[in-house]
Amino acid sequence: MVIKVFIPERNNLNERVLFAHPDIERVENPQEADFIIAQSTFGHLSHIDKTIYIAVEPPRTSHRIWCYDLFDRFHTVICHNPDPSKENQFPFTPDDSCQYYPTYGDPYPFHTREDTTIKTKAVFYAGMINIFENSPDAHGGINITPLRKLLGDYFKREFPGSIIIGIGWGGQRTKVDNWREDKQNQIMDSNVDFVLALENTMYPNYLYEKIWDGFACDKVTMYLGDPRVEHHIPTDCFIDLRPYFDTKSKKFDLDALGKYLKEMTQEEYDRILNNARKFRETCHGKYVEYMDKLTNFLIRRMLNGEKEFKP
After folding, report:
1. Averaged over 2-13, what is the pLDDT?
2. How many CB atoms lie within 10 A of CB 42?
3. How far is Cα 137 from Cα 162, in angstroms, rounded to an integer?
4. Which whole number is the average pLDDT over 177-191?
5. How many other C-beta atoms can be found within 10 angstroms of the C-beta atom of residue 168?
6. Could you tell me the pLDDT band of residue 8, with boundaries at 50, 70 and 90?
7. Yes or no: is domain 107-281 CATH 3.40.30.10?
8. Relative orientation angle of helices 266-281 and 210-217, to the nearest 10 degrees
9. Taking the CB of residue 123, how many other CB atoms lie within 10 A of it?
């Protein structure tokens, strides 16, 4: 029996593997499909019971919260923080140490600087402001978008030479087409010593591309986002910002962080950087490996109803 699949948008699957399977056929009409594989947004409410929903974004906007509220109605849900009591919810990978793989970290080219001497202690940060500022805390996630302007303004003021870019900063209104490459080029061409990696939401296992900006460009990275980050990336590879942020009051201790950065020695800087270098080398090939494992699991689930995603 041939299974007909409709994919309306980009996803974290290897479509070459999916549609190379002899029993899987791509169709262009959701009405004809046995399954719909959708990601991030969902516009096929009438077909929700045959939809495999890949929730790559946390519940931070109304349409995504709507999808999270309806998880039980989807045929299958792939998400960062699945409910193990639900038979239709699964993680991106059953390997807890590699929950970071949907970040696209692996395809980044890795740079290694010969001279790591601390220069100005300036910070690079790329991220939109005034976007999702009023997103509610939902499904266990904590909206930390307002910290973007708070931290960006602080670094510009206290650490001269810091580079803060993104929609809403300095009159920028659009995102360049090759924004990942553009970020890397700007970091590499700058004299910054640190990269700020700030997610939009503190949500379990949601760890996107931002931390790789620093790792790939060989700069010490400051990170706040995934509350379980130590399960995926050793905390000696970056500056963990969780101790500076009170999740209940939503207050960030800027003075304590600034003092720590200003007093950081070259020895400590190089230790963090070398740990990050060792870690990133273990990540080669992980993106394709785990994307293929998820793709093959979903093929088996569509064909024979497989109920367990095994390591």
Report:
1. 86
2. 21
3. 30
4. 89
5. 16
6. confident
7. no
8. 110
9. 25
Instruction: Please state which of the ranges 189-193, 240-244, 254-258, 287-291 shows the lowest mean pLDDT.
Output: 287-291
pLDDT given at position 135: 83
**DSSP-derived pairing of the beta strands 142-143 and 201-202:** antiparallel
Q: What integer pLDDT is reported at residue 105 of this predicted model?
A: 63
Identify whether the C-beta of residue 91 lies closer than 8 Å to the C-beta of residue 82.
Answer: yes
Whether residue 185 contacts residue 217, with contact meaning beta carbons closer than 8 Å, is answered with no
Q: What does the angle CA 202 – CA 208 – CA 211 come to, to the nearest 5 degrees?
A: 95
Q: What is the token pair recorded at 248?
A: 């209940």
What CA–CA distance (Å, rounded) separates 202 from 200?
7
Measure CA of the first residue to CA of the last residue in the chain; give whole Å. 27
Tokens describing residue 201: 């939401």
Q: For residues 102 and 216, which has the higher predicted lDDT (pLDDT)?
A: 216
Report the SS3 class of residue 102. helix
Can you give the pLDDT at residue 181? 85
Alpha helices in the chain (DSSP H): 15-20, 62-69, 147-158, 179-189, 210-217, 254-263, 266-281, 286-304
Q: In whole angstroms, what is the distance from residue 137 CA to residue 160 CA?
A: 34
